[in-house]
Amino acid sequence: MRLGLKLFLGFFLIVGLAAFFVMRVFVDEVKPGVRQAMESTLVDAANVLAEMAAPDLKAGNLTGGGFTASLARAQRRDPKAMVWRFPKRALDYRVTVTDAAGIVVYDSLGRDIGRDNSRWNDVYRTLRGEYGARSSPEVPGDDSNTVMHVAAPVYDPADGRTLIGVLSLSQPNRSIDPFIAASQRQIMLRGAWLIGLSALIGVLMTAWLMTGVRRLNRYAQAVSAGEPVAPPRPRRDEIGDLGRALERMRRKLEGKAYVEQYVQSLTHEMKSPLAAIRGAAELLQEPMADADRARFARSIVDQQQRLTWTIDKLLALAEVEQHGWLQARETLAVAALFEAALDAVQLPAQAAGIGVQAEPGMALAVEGDGYLLRQALHNLLDNAIDFSAAGSVVRLVARRAGDGVALQVLDQGVGIPEYARGRVFERFYSLARPADGRRSSGLGLPFVQEVARLHGGRATVEPGQEGGTVATLWLPRAG
Fold this sequence. Notes:
- This protein has helices at residues 3-59, 66-75, 121-127, 177-224, 238-284, 290-321, 334-351, 370-386, 444-454; strands at 81-83, 86-88, 94-99, 104-107, 133-139, 142-155, 163-172, 330-333, 355-359, 365-368, 393-401, 404-410, 458-463, 469-476.
- By secondary structure, the chain is α+β, with helices and mostly antiparallel strands.
- A five-stranded antiparallel sheet has the order 4-3-7-6-5, with helices on both faces. It has a five-stranded mixed sheet with strand order 9-11-12-14-13.
- The protein is rod-shaped.
């Protein structure tokens, strides 16, 4: 199972289960809570009615007195009420009055007059000076519909202490069931929203965490594959600390390997020039003709120059290769890049009798490091001039290519031999110049390739359709 899915499931299970159990508690508490509230209102109403019934009960005229007449009129009323989206068109109260012995003397429904209610919990406890209440089935044997009964003592109006009867006020629980069901539905709906919102938050949190983890994974995979890559984006958390630690480790490990590789490469490339210099120096110590002496001295200077070029190019390439990402970025007009590149090669081109032309195209622009791009174009032009014959022309052309810009150097030289086409970007690989047979450091094209990589582009060298060579530096277009 993926780490992101594990994180999400763990978060969702914790929050979802907590929300579910809290929701169930609320749902389970709705019914008793509403019934307790109903009981409280019944207690208030029962005590008010007990005070109103006391004079008629003491006078023995309860059934024909004003109290019962008022109750009868009240039960015929239509409240025309809308209580929380539920219509209420009749009163749900039932009033029962017993005498001091618990015998029913009045029933608002007229059904139980004369019945002994002294054993019912509401009447029984009230007759003993306690609070009396009970919940009984509305129909005997059917526990699905119950009725709440609350009793209040009826005291003698003369002294307010002598118990002369008990008034029981009842209301069916089904009258409040719609409100309970509506409240439970609302809790379930809100709970579902809460769980859904928790899931969304879990997805967002997991995505946020996994974004950093995936970046670290891609970074580690690229480093293990030996690919130069930018360090993970800075973050102010443990993932950011881990990314910075990995970058420091990569730099230390790559720095050591990089130095070892370059020391080996430089040592290998220096052997031939140093051997030539040593041989010429030993021969110069012997008597020889002036022409030979001059030739050996010139060989020493040439080999020294070759070493200098190799070291300079190697340092430039090392600086570029050590950058896993582009250090500076700006929008650059292709025309300005071409102008700077032509200025840099104008003198050697004139000395070799080679013409150089630029065709920057229509207001093309790229994004990147101006210095590196100028150096890359300079290297491509140097190669083209070295392999071109006197009187030929080297062209610097720009054109749109897909979603980027292709900067091309086209020469009319001898072209690339078949055996060398797959090796031109190898470090220290060089072909002999047609004019004098000399070889370069073999680091110019690797430098161009590294610059292309840093800019998210690519470099290619291919035979031209009409002879010569076409060197292309493709770069993403600005914007």
